[in-house]
UniProtKB/TrEMBL annotation:
It comes from Vitreoscilla stercoraria. This is DUF523 domain-containing protein. It comes from the Bacteria.
Amino acid sequence: VSETVGISACLCGQSVRYDGKHCLMDNAPSTDQRFMICPEVMGGLSTPRAAAEIVGGDGWDVWQGHAKVITRDGSDVTQAFKQGALLALQSLQDAQIKTVWLKSKSPSCGSGQIYDGSFQGVLKQGDGVTTALLRQHGIAVVSV
Ligand code: SF4
């Protein structure tokens, strides 16, 4: 019996990424073994949407109130990112999912490395807002 894994919806051909495109992966779990989430859409953000990066820290700092999620055009979308992360956590817990594969470098789903808030394509160490929350609650995050 294979365990169902959570997965960033944009990795499975769902066009939910900020720019309206998606990013396919070769070895995605089969339909009945995956549980798709998109925290940014779950948080009420539209698609396409302005690119966003975490300013002042990473996802862990966002939860501690020390960093914010800001779009390229200067809007503060921190609350939508936090709301989406909380809904993603709740849905994963409801489905008893223990492992998620999340899209690398995203301000929501990134793991280990995210963009640095300068919108210059520069990476910094850190987790996205959703990744930090899921890890805090014992869900294993695999970066894809
Ligand atoms: Fe949604 Fe995460 Fe993919 Fe961004 S990286 S589009 S938040 S699933």
